[in-house]
Each structure stands twice: as C-alpha cells, then as structure tokens.
Amino acid sequence: MSDIKLVQNCQNGNFDSFWVLYDSYVEKIYKFIYYKTLNKELSEDLTSEVFFNALNKINNLSLDNESSFKSWLYKIAYNKIIDYYRRKKDNSSLKDYLNLWKDNDLWKNFDDKNKLKEVLKYLKTLKKEHKEVIIMRIWDDLSFKEISEINWFSVDNCKQIFCRTIKKINGNITLLFVTIFFII
Predict the structure, then answer these.
(1) What are the start and end residues of each CATH 1.10.1740.10 domain in the chain?
(2) Contact at 8 Å (CB) between 86 and 24?
(3) CA-CA distance, 100 to 175, in Å (whole number)?
(4) For residue 44, which of 73, 112, 132, 168 sits 20 to 30 Å off, Cα-Cα?
(5) CATH no. for 3-87
(6) Which of 169, 99, 172, 177 is nearest to 137 (CA)?
C-alpha cells in the first residue's frame, strides 16, 4: 500500500496504518538523526519524538503526487535536530558529521588513507548547507525533490550544489567518497 493511502487511512481513524509507516521509516530516521548527533540514546529519543509529532500532526498533512510522507518525516527529524542543538545553545554547526569517522573502524577498511584524508579535508571546507545536500543525497539516498522539501532549496539549486561539489573532487576521490557513504 502506498504512503499516501496509509496516511489517508490514518486520517480516517485507522491508526494501524501508522505502524506500517513507522516500520517503513523508523530505521532510516534513526540513522539520519544518529549521524548528526553521534549519540545512541539521544537519537532514540529524538526518533521517538519525530514519530510522536508525525502521529499528532498526520491529520494536518496534505499529500499529493508532488509531496511525500518520507520528506515530511525527514523535515520533522531535521527540525528536531536543529531544536535540540538550539536548546543546548550549540551554534557550532550542529556537530560536524565527519567526527563520526574519528571514533570507528572505518580507517581499517581503506588501503589509501591519504585519499580518505583528502576527502575528509575537502568536506570540512564545504558550507554546512552544501555538506547537508551531499550527505542527504548520497548517504540518506534522498531524491533532490525530497532534499529541497527538507532544506527549502529549490530542486535545481540542490542539483547544482551536488553536481558542482562532486565535480570539484577528482575521479579517484569521487569513487572513494561514494564508497565511504555506502559502507557506513
């Protein structure tokens, strides 16, 4: 059953359909939050809040073929993360995603650590918004339309940011860059 139909069922009082949506997206939303917080318990809490908010606001959701439940859910998650860091008064850029790689065994999986270091160095130079577009596209496997709905960029702007950023990375590093995001 499509997300649109499941949402309509929820809006008509059949909340069993919400659990189908929950099961479809809970792991993806958790990972999305975890890679931005690097804290298991916090990610679990925020994921719960995302779905609680979604359930409470599902009657206000208007879906058509142009919008998606998935992007709406990611937008709620994105806002939860921003709200969390605002409450913490952490204005440092919502934690750098790249810190994830400092504390795990990713380094052991690559023969050419210098290329990986070059990729990480390059990613640190990107604007926060550009880094988010790249990560959402490659890591979270979101469409440009979904990214635009989450970040309020136009679809064309998301495509342009992505293409220009990838072109700046030379061929060998691009392969490594894509590999990194699919391994994690």
Answers:
(1) 3-87
(2) no
(3) 20
(4) 132
(5) 1.10.1740.10
(6) 177
